[in-house]
Design goal:
The complex is a heterodimer of chains A (about 550) and B (about 450). Chain A has about 550 residues and is an alpha/beta fold. Chain A has a domain of about 120 residues: Nitrogenase molybdenum iron protein domain (Rossmann fold, 3-Layer(aba) Sandwich), CATH 3.40.50.1980. In chain A, the strands form three sheets. A six-stranded mixed sheet of chain A has the order 1-12-11-10-13-14, with helices on both faces. In chain A, strands 3-2-4-5 form a four-stranded parallel sheet, sandwiched between helices. Chain A has a four-stranded parallel sheet with strand order 7-6-8-9, sandwiched between helices. Chain A is globular. Chain A starts with a helix and ends in an 11-residue tail after the last helix. Chain B has about 450 residues and is an alpha/beta fold. Chain B has three domains: about 140 residues, Nitrogenase molybdenum iron protein domain (Rossmann fold); about 120 residues, Nitrogenase molybdenum iron protein domain (Rossmann fold, 3-Layer(aba) Sandwich), CATH 3.40.50; about 160 residues, Nitrogenase molybdenum iron protein domain (Rossmann fold, 3-Layer(aba) Sandwich), CATH 3.40.50.1980. Helices cover about 45% and strands about 15% of the residues of chain B. In chain B, strand 2, helix 2 and strand 3 form a beta-alpha-beta unit. In chain B, helix 7 runs parallel beside helix 10 and helix 12 packs parallel to helix 18. The radius of gyration of chain B is 23 Å and the shape is globular. The two termini of chain B are about 35 Å apart. The relative contact order of chain B is 0.12. The chains are: A alpha/beta (about 550), B alpha/beta (about 450). Chains A and B meet through helix 4, helix 5, strand 3, helix 6 and helix 7 of A and strand 1, helix 1, helix 2, strand 3 and helix 3 of B. Strand 3 of chain A pairs antiparallel with strand 1 of chain B.
Amino acid sequence: MATKNKLVQWDPVDIKEEMLKKYPPKVARKRAKQILINEAEGSETPEIAANVRTVPGIITMRGCTYAGCKGVIMGPTRDIVNITHGPIGCGFYSWLTRRNQTDASDPEAENYMTYSFSTDMQDEDIIFGGEKKLEAAIEEAYELFHPKGICVFATCPVGLIGDDIHAVAAKMSKKYEDCNIFAFSCEGYKGVSQSAGHHIANNQVFKYLVGENEKPVKGDYKINLLGEYNIGGDGFEIDRILNKCGITNVATFSGNSTYDQFASAQHADLSCVMCHRSINYVADMLETKYGIPWIKVNFIGAEATAKSLRKIGQYFEDKELMDRIEAVIAEEMPDVEAMREEVLPHTSGKTAMLFVGGSRAHHYQELFGEMGMKTISAGYEFAHRDDYEGREVIPNLKVDADSRNIEEIEVSPDEALYRPRKTDEQTQALEAAGFRFKEYDGMLPDMDHRTIIVDDLNQYEAEKLVEIMQPDIFCAGIKEKYSIQKLGVPMKQLHSYDSGGPYAGFRGAINFYKEIDRLVTSKVWSYMKAPWQENPELSATYVWE
Amino acid sequence: MTLLRHTPKEITERKALAINPAKTCQPIGAMYAALGIHGCLPHSHGSQGCCAYHRSTLTRHYKEPISAATSSFTEGASVFGGQANLLQAANNIFSVYEPEVIAVHTTCLSETIGDDLKQIITKARKDGKIPEGKEMLGASTPSYVGSHVTGFSNMVKSMVSTFAKNTNERNGKVNIIPGWVEPADMEEVKRIAAMMGVDITLFPDTSGVLNGPLSGEYRMFPEGGVTIEELKDSGNAIGTMALGEWCSADAARWLDSNCKVPCTVLDMPFGLKATDRFVDTLRVIAGTSVPDSLAHERGQLVDMISDMHQYTFGKKVAIWGDPDQLISMCEFLVSMDMWPVHVVTGTPGKRFEARIREITKDLPFDINVKAGGDMFLLHQWIKNEPVDLLIGNSYGKYIARDEDTPLIRWGFPILDRVGHQYFPTLGYKGGLRLLEKMLNAILDRKDRDDPEETFELVL
C-alpha cells in the first residue's frame, strides 16, 4: 500500500516542521511546544506543553468548562434534576447528546436524563440579574418532580453579571429539606478546556454528595470506579465482569450513577481510576478523607482488563477472590481470542491515529495493539502534562492564570469516618511485591520512539498528519469525523463511539475488534472514483486498430 | 417503562423553568447562515464551548464537516474584552485557512461584556489583519434574545447591510432569501427559478456546501454558497422575495429601505398553497410566465392529495419547530383536511399564535398553540388530547415512543435519520415528498394496528 512508502519518506522532524509551516511565527512557537517527538531529547524526559490556552482563530477540538461539568461529569446522573442557569443554548446542546447510557428499568427509578432543564435567561435577566428566576425555576422543578437532588450550572453570562448561584442553592436547599440543592460555577470561559469543568464538577460532588449516605454497603470486596462514564454501555460491561468476580462496585463516577451511589462512596475499600485526567484528584481526596487507597486501572482492552482485575485481586490479598478472577478471565478469554484470531489477518500491520479525550488516546492503544495495529501518532484534547509524562511531574506543574481560578479544595481526615484500609506494613509488603498505588506513567512511555505526540490537535494539523502519514484509521470526535472521511480515511469516534459500543471489558474488546475490522477492510472507500475518472480515455481501442 | 416518565398529564403553569426546549440560541443560526456564503469561515466570538456545540450539532444534522473558528475566550478576555482575541483570530484564520471571508457572530458572553463587533472589525481592517481582497462581516447575536431563528435572520441581514450597494445599475435579477431551509430546499428554489427562466440571487445558499460528495478530497470551502460579488450586487436587484417573516424579512426590508429594492415577504413555500403564492409572486416580479412543466408538478401534488384524501382527512397532528416552517406546514395540513391540534415553537412572538389561529379557524374545535413554548408542554397537551401523527425534530422520538405515535422528522435538528440534505420538502416536488412521508407513517401504523380480518392488501 502507498501508506507505508509515504511513512518511510517522512522523518518526524520534517512532519513537525510541515505542520508548523503555515502558522504565523508566534503561533508556530506556541504549537511547537505542544508537538513532541517522543524521546527526541535522548535520555532527558521529554516535556510537552499541555493544558494551555488554545490560540484564538485556530479550529480546536476543545469545548468549554460548562461542557466538562454539566455534560461530562453530571450528564450521566439520572436521578438529579440538572438545571442550566443561562440562555437556552447550553442546556439544549447538552441534552441527550453524549451517549451515556443508564439503567432506569426499575419501575420506581427516577430518570431525568431524557430531560433538559434551563432557566432560559432573557435580556431582562441579564440586565437585572437572574437570581429570582433561578429561585423560581428550582421551586417549579421541586414542585413538579420532588427529586432527591437539584444541581445548578452556571453559563458564561451568569458569572459576568454576578448571580450568586451558590447562595440561591443554599437558600432553596434549606427550604426543601428532602432535596439536596447545590451549584457549580462552571462558566464556559473558565479554564482552557473541558478539563476545568471536570474539576469543578468533581469538587462539588465530593463536597455535597459523598458521605451523605451512612447506610453500610454489603459486599466482601468493595470498590469505587472513578472516571467511567458508561458511553455506549462500557460501564454495564465492566459491572458485569465485576459482578461475576464477586466484586461490589459501590459507586461509579459517574456512568450509570445514582444519587445514593455517590453518597455511599465512602464505604468502598478501594478506588479504581479509569480516566486519570478527569478524576485523579477525587481519588486523592477519598484517600485523605476516608482512608481509601487508589490504583489506576484500565478496562479498555482484554489484556488490560485481565491485568486490572488481577490488580484488584492482589489488593484485597484474598485467595478466593484471586481464584475467582482467574476463573472469570479463563472463561471470558476464549471468545475474545477467537475473535482476535479472526480479525488479525486483516488488521495486523495497519496503523491508527488517536486524538481524543484525556485518557482514551492512551487506553485505546491497548485495543489496537491487540489487533496488531500500531498507533503512529496520538494526543489528548484536554489532558495535562501528567497524563503524557506520568504523575511524577505533578509537583513541578506550573500554576498559571487559567488553572488558578479552579478551586482546589482542602481535605482532611474525617473524624468519624477516616479508616485506613491497609496498615503501613501491609502497604509496604504490597509495594515490595511490585504493587503500585496511585501511579500513572502516562501515554509517552507506551509509545514508540520518535512517534509524534500532539496536544490539542486542530483541524489544520489533523489534515496535514493524515495527508502525510496516511493512517488506516483516525480516531477523534464528531467535529473531526467528516473532514477526515472526505480524505478517504475511515474515522472512528472515540468520544461517542459513533453508535457502537460497549468497547470496555471482554465483550467490548470483541465489539471493537469487529468494528475496526469493518472499518479498515471496508470496500466503501473504493467507490470514490467513477469508472470514467479512473479511465478517462474515450475508447479502450486504439484509433489505428 | 417510559422514557419521559416524569411528565405529568396535569398541566401546571411554569414561569421560570424551561423543560425540553423547542428552540436553541442565536449563534447557531448565524453559523448556519454564514456557511451559505462562498468561501466563508464562520467565527464564534465567545468561549470555545459555543463553537464546539454548534459545530457538533450541525455536523450531526448534516453528516458533513462543519468548519468554524472561535475567539477562545478565557477569564482574562471576559474581563478585559475580546478585542485582542478577535484581532489575533482574524490574523490566524486568514494565514492558516485562507477563507475569502470571515463571518463573525457574537455570543451571550461577548454581548454581556459589551464587545462592539463593528468597531473591532474596523480596527482589524485598519491594523492590516484583513488581507487585501478579503472580507469580514459581523452580526450581533445575543443568545438571551429570540432564538436560533433570530440569529439566522441577523446574520442574513448583516450580509446585505455589510455588502449590498445600489449602484444604479439594475441587474434584472430577483433576490430570494430562502430562510433556514435545508441545502436541498435551496437547490429546489434555484431549480424552480430556472424552470421559470428567472435569474436569481439566492442567499444564503448552503447547497453545494453541506451536501457534498465523497471524492477523496477535503475542501474546507466547497463550490457552493453565494459570493460576495453577488451579495454586493443584491442592491441592484429588481426585487427581493423574503421567504419567511422570521428568517428573512429583516434583510429584505433593509434592501428595500437602503437600496430601493422592493421587497415582498412570503411564507416559506412548503405545501401546495404557499408554493402557489411563491411561484405566482416570482412570476409577477420577474415579469415572466409559469412553464407547463411546473404546472405539471403542481398537478401531480394535487393528484396525490385527492387520491389519498381518505387517509389524511381528520388526522390529528402535533407539530413543533420554527415559526416560518410551522405556518406553512399548518396551512398544508389544513389544506388536506388534517388537523394540527397542538402547535409549539420555542421562538417567542405572539404574531405566530395569531397566524396559526387564523390558519386553523375553520377547524371544528380550538387548537393549542404556543410561541415560546417547550416540548414538555407539548407532551402534556398530547397526553390530554392524543394525536395520530407527530411532525418535528429528532427530540420528538422520546414522545413518539412513550405515546406510541408515529413521528415524521422535519425541522432542526435531525440527528438520527438522513435524507434532509438531499431531498427537498419545499415546492411542489417537496410537497409530494412530505405527503409521501405522512402517508407512509399513517398507513404503516394502520397496517400494524388493523386486526387480521380487516388487514388489507390494497390501500
